[in-house]
Amino acid sequence: GSSLEPEECSMEPPAVPGEEEEEEEVPLSVAPGPVGCQLFGYVGIEAVLDQMKIKTMKTGFEFNIMVVGQSGLGKSTMVNTLFKSKVSRKSSQPSQEERIPKTVQLQSITHVIEEKGVKMKLTVTDTPGFGDQINNENCWDPIIKYINEQYERYLREEILITRKRKIPDTRVHGCVYFVPPTGHWLRPLDLEFMQRLSKIVNVVPVIAKADTLTLEERAEFKQRIQEDLKTHAISVYPQEDFDQDPEDRALNDRIREKIPFAVVGADQEHQVNGKRVLGRKTKWGIIEVENPSHCEFPLLRDLLIRSHLQDLKDITHNVHYESYRVRRLNESNRPG
């Protein structure tokens, strides 16, 4: 007495062309059939990835990076090397005031970089004057103020009754901190800065101008920095608390063993074995920037761009910005 006969909902494969009853093929997504009849086969769910890719390529995306360190550590050169373009500019003839800034003055430069049809709005924020003075007390205050101002700007746009479909994102997604290649321990200034900034932004420490150290000195200096970070409970990126699954933890553990990256920056090409490579020319040879046996710049580039760029943005939005948003809304809701 069932209204649905078994043969009407048969799951047998369709007839092979050439047999007696050859039927026209009908896509499974639009194949007619009684309610409750399950169909197994290709649906096309993975096309969602293509839709997301096409939409992202049309709209593009934003990435904001900050570089912090003393003058002369190669911050501008490193950013140019990172994106293989002149995204960080230096004045050709700096005046005396520009050479020795009295305070930390933040300078932001925005470029639109396009590669294989993908557009990225890149904002590089430089911090000239950081750590250059004899008395560097509270020299991190302008940097903290700038980062919080970007959170505040995003928050004000977000709480509007009529919001923009796409809120401009000027929040700092990553801060690359350049440690001077002293070969000793971290300075109190380095520890204080990373301790304060790691709570509000993703901090990635690097050893600047690593070609001034021997391989033994580099390994010993890196180990001392890791001990300093562990002793002072400074959580640099990638943070252990935010690992999503065992695969992410395994990958990030390998990265954490290498931090801080010993990097060398160069924005000039040289001829090596018939190939044009980025590098620094010295009397005894050429230091190839993109050669892992010469320096760890490829590891830094992979971390910031190839493997963890979206994760940097996600942690900025879901962790650092969220904590700022909660704090600000709690302050505004307190009775007068």
UniProtKB/TrEMBL annotation:
<keyword id="KW-0342">GTP-binding</keyword>
<keyword id="KW-0131">Cell cycle</keyword>
<dbReference type="GO" id="GO:0005525">
    <property type="term" value="F:GTP binding"/>
</dbReference>
<dbReference type="InterPro" id="IPR030379">
    <property type="entry name" value="G_SEPTIN_dom"/>
</dbReference>
<feature type="compositionally biased region" description="Acidic residues">
    <location>
        <begin position="1"/>
        <end position="10"/>
    </location>
</feature>
<dbReference type="GO" id="GO:0005856">
    <property type="term" value="C:cytoskeleton"/>
</dbReference>
<keyword id="KW-0206">Cytoskeleton</keyword>
<feature type="region of interest" description="Disordered">
    <location>
        <begin position="1"/>
        <end position="27"/>
    </location>
</feature>
<dbReference type="InterPro" id="IPR016491">
    <property type="entry name" value="Septin"/>
</dbReference>
<comment type="similarity">
    <text>Belongs to the TRAFAC class TrmE-Era-EngA-EngB-Septin-like GTPase superfamily. Septin GTPase family.</text>
</comment>
<protein>
    <submittedName>
        <fullName>SEP12 protein</fullName>
    </submittedName>
</protein>
<keyword id="KW-0547">Nucleotide-binding</keyword>
<dbReference type="InterPro" id="IPR027417">
    <property type="entry name" value="P-loop_NTPase"/>
</dbReference>
<dbReference type="GO" id="GO:0051301">
    <property type="term" value="P:cell division"/>
</dbReference>
<feature type="domain" description="Septin-type G">
    <location>
        <begin position="59"/>
        <end position="331"/>
    </location>
</feature>
<dbReference type="Pfam" id="PF00735">
    <property type="entry name" value="Septin"/>
</dbReference>
<keyword id="KW-0132">Cell division</keyword>
<keyword id="KW-0963">Cytoplasm</keyword>
